[in-house]
Prior knowledge:
Elements: H1 11-18, H2 23-52
Amino acid sequence: MAHITEVVPNDTELEAMTNPKNSKAVETMQHRREVKRRLEDYLERAELKRALGDDDFF
Length: 58
């Protein structure tokens, strides 16, 4: 049986995630946020279409 555990990052890890030290890390973080935002928007639209009975996505 598998056990799922959540690991809470410590303060140093949180700071590294929120305050990147170089420009490449900043660009990567911004790109990930944009991709996540687009995915969430797409999923929200798909859920709305499904709720309205329009299952054709394309």
